[in-house]
Amino acid sequence: MRDKVTCSDCGSIFECDLSIAGGDRACPECGSLSKLISLSFEDKVTIGLDTKITGKRVGEKRPFIEEKVGDDFNRDREKYIYREQIIDRENNYYKKLLKDKETGEILRHDEGLLTDHQGFGNAKVSPSKL
Ligand SMILES: [Zn+2]
To answer: 34, 83, 85, 89: which has the fewest C-beta neighbours closer than 10 Å?
Structure first.
């Protein structure tokens, strides 16, 4: 079985068979044998990818529902946090949830009427407000 590991010296990600001692365990980039080994790291390398779902009707330009679920880089905390955002224009519903995945701490939780949130309920949005 080949595992994904990251080199703690140069940070490159490569695969090697951790069940066999020695062998191809050296980093192909810098030759270092010290590496951060974690199977769960495989999940972490996919962070930053968003799932975005939009619901649109034929003939309509603007989606009536937008849902974004994924990881978002938080500059204040310098790490990826879980983000969930739902904009449901049909039901005038808005939700934004930011959660620290490590601690489970809720960083932000907005939920309510979409029309209360300017910039989302309005068709004319200046990019500077986003
Ligand atoms: Zn390396």
So the answer is: 34
Residue type, 109: H
Amino acid at 106: I
Tokens, residue 110: 């907005």
Strand, coil or helix: 64: coil
Residues 101 and 63 in one domain: yes
Same domain, 20 and 38: yes
Q: Which residue has the tokens 């994924």?
A: 70
- The boundaries of the domain holding residue 33 are 3-44
For residues 57 and 117, state if they share a domain: yes
Same domain, 59 and 20: no
Query: How far is Cα 99 from Cα 124, in angstroms, rounded to an integer?
Result: 29
> From ligand 1's centre to the CA of 86, what distance in Å?
41
Predicted TM-score (pTM) of the model is 0.49
Write the pLDDT tens digit of every residue in 61-90. 777 888 888 888 888 888 888 999 999 988
